[in-house]
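Ex. 9. Protein: Type II toxin-antitoxin system ParD family antitoxin.
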Amino acid sequence: MRWRSPPQPSHYDWTEDWVKYKFNYNLPTATPFLPMSITLTPQQEQIIQAQLASGRYTNVSEIIADALRLLEKRDRYNLWVEEVCAKIDIAAEQLDRGEGIDGETAIAQIRAKFHQGHQV
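Predicted C-alpha cells for Type II toxin-antitoxin system ParD family antitoxin:
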C-alpha cells in the first residue's frame, strides 16, 4: 500500500489548524508542508487498517503522528538508559577502588539527614 495525504479542498488548508490544535503552536505562514508518500509492507497495512477499524483513529495521519510520537519517546528513553548505565559503570569503578560506603552506612546517613531536617 502506498499512502499519500488525502486530497483536501483547495479552499481549506487543514494542516495549519491541525498543528495549532494538536501542538498548540502557530506555524509561520510561509511554512510549506510537502506531500510525502511511503511504501508499507502488507503487515504494516494490516496494522493500520486494524487501528482504523478499532475506531481509535479517524485517519491514517493520526496513526502516523502517534507512531512518530512513540518513536521519539522510545528514543528519549533509550538515551536515558544509556546515561544511567554510564553512571552505574562509574559508580562500580569507584566501588572497586574502595571509594564507596556500605549500604548500612548509607542508610544511616540518609536517616540522620532526614531527622536533622525535621527537628524543630
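Check your answer against this statement. The helical segments are 14-23, 42-54, 60-96, 103-117.
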